[in-house]
Model the fold of this input.
Amino acid sequence: MARRVLLIEDEPNIIEAVSFILSRDGWTVHTHSDGLSAVARVRAHPPDLVILDAMLPGRSGFDILQELRGDPALRALPVMMLTARGQARDRDLAMRLGASHFMTKPFSNAEVLDRVRALAGG
Amino acid sequence: MSRAGEAATGLAGSRIRARRLDAGMAQGELARRIGVSPSYLNLIEHNRRRIGGRLLNAIARALELEVAQLSEGADGALLARLAAAAAAQARPPAAPEEFAGRFPDWAAVVDAQARRIETLEAQVAALGDRLAHDPELSASLHQVITSATAIRSTASILAGGEALDRDWQARFHNNIHAESLRLADSSRRLAGYLEVPGDDHGPTALSPQEQVERFFEAADHHLPALEGETPAMQPEEIAAEAPGLDAAARRMLIHRLAQYRADAVALPSEAIGAAWSETPDPLAIAARLGQPLERVLRRLAALPAGLGPPRAGLAVCDAAGAILHRRPLDGLTLPRGGAACPLWPLFEALSQPGRPLRATAKLPGARAEGVSCYAVASIAAPAGWNAAPRIEAVMLMLPQEGGAHDLPERAVGPGCRLCPRRGCAARREPSLLPRAMTGEGGQALTG
Done:
């Protein structure tokens, strides 16, 4: 069975491109665009890996990450954060909150694939 | 502050010594020419004897100098600023007094540059703050990066060389097109936002407050157009015509001018001028003319020459102690940006609005005369039901010269970084002054 990625991102064209490259690489890609209901979505169908944008409508990606890490069942779930602001402060915050990896936009497709494979395989 | 007529104090001796050495004259020779013993001249040169006007004249003649060149050294505030400027360097040069005494014009240049650097540093910090926290800027930037991300990712799929069916290809082309339009729009908005506003005249590197301050300085703090029963102009007209103001400064200026007008209506210059010449006591004037003290204080600092106090300074702050408005007294003023000495009566007044305070403020160092300070805090704006009031404190500063002053004395400083006072309980950061100027405690927080 194909491994499942949940992409939590609200920009339609980014969703489409990232979904495409991951699907072509053999992943089953689910997408979710709303910050408020993101945690419930993860709990309902836990994926093998989450790609989480930092800036979402309704709720920040950092809050979502914190709640995920507070749940013992989700503590080990690989979460890769995406952010448009590459400041050290955001990176520190993401890593402190338990992100598995932090990637700054605009990213390269190859980089995303490499990281996703590494995180899900490890 | 010339003391040439009576006696030169402070460091006149150092200047005499420097000038004598410049002239290549032996101490004994100068002593002979002015008719004192070499050992007495030696004491004078080491600032251990005060030197009278007659002797100073004789020395000036012997060294072929103007008396003022010997008697008027740099004032203490300038020396402190020079020392602070020096302290900011990796290898601070010593003896600011000698430098200022021998090269007064160059010392003024160094001082002006140091002030300019301080202003620019504050502006850089403000701009940095703006870049980091401005919501509009960060939203536009986010939009640009989002579009760039989508375009990069999509374009690299198309350019990747792997087979794509026609539908996907068309979709991705459409997406790139749509994102590129968004990017064009958001990048244009970003560029426009970063551009210096075009409707401002002149360089507006100054903060709005500084621009307003400059306006009042240029007018010498008196605005005839707003005086009298029927003023020649309205605050809005004056602000509209004032050159070199940006929009924010213009709004602040209108607010200050409206207050000026209200003060002028309540206290016409002739009335307060007459009251002042009869009893130079702000509180007595307030009682007699039936006006609040804060208004009297503001008004006394805004009268034309000949009507009120000949020289006056003013400082206005809000409940956080931020300086809102100020008029320097002979160059003496309270620094902005939280750097002011908390011992000024202005700040004490904040703790009990309505309670009038007066004191003789004594600054450290060469500025021997005290400054008469009259301060009061009051509710500056009606706040509305259950709303927090806006408190403003006002302090009038008048020079004390000659005559006795019975106001209680109070030690104040130029702000911790430039203050030589040791063991001050109000100190919040160490002095920048070298130890030589502060005594041994220069670098210690509490001395």
